[in-house]
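Morning run. Coffee first, then this:
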Amino acid sequence: MTPDPQPPTRTHLRLLAGHSKGEPVFEVLPALFLEPGLFELAGSPGLTLGCAAGDVLRVGDDGRFTVVEPGGNLCVQAARRGCFAPESLAGLRDAIGELGGIAEAPSDLRFVVVTVALTAGFPAVEHVMDRWAAGIDGAEWWFGNIDHDEHVDTAH
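And here it is:
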């Protein structure tokens, strides 16, 4: 009888989100360690583009990454000048929850991240996000893990 393999180890990844004033900017995200350099992302990013919760990533020491296997989720990122109101986040949580997704934000509500299954469909997600953002002055949202060439009309 073969023993059961050990469950993946929970860890955190430091992903390269971009650069500011010539310096790298990193985002730390929860993940599951699969093997050296290979991780399953356990949460969608608020700053980093190109990945979502559930994706299997190959991550270099410099924080650059490649999606080895998509996890089947959309990552939607939203921001505005200033912070979001708690009640606006609650409204989004309810609306996106109807699609089986979750909406999260840091405690200061300076941005919002939505994770929802790709099977929910672009039209349904866009409808929820457009309705939500329309009620918030200066709110903008975008798909954080979809190549703009693959899906037109992603920035709102």
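The beta strands are 9-20, 23-35, 38-41, 56-59, 65-69, 73-79, 102-104, 111-117, 140-143. Good start to the day.
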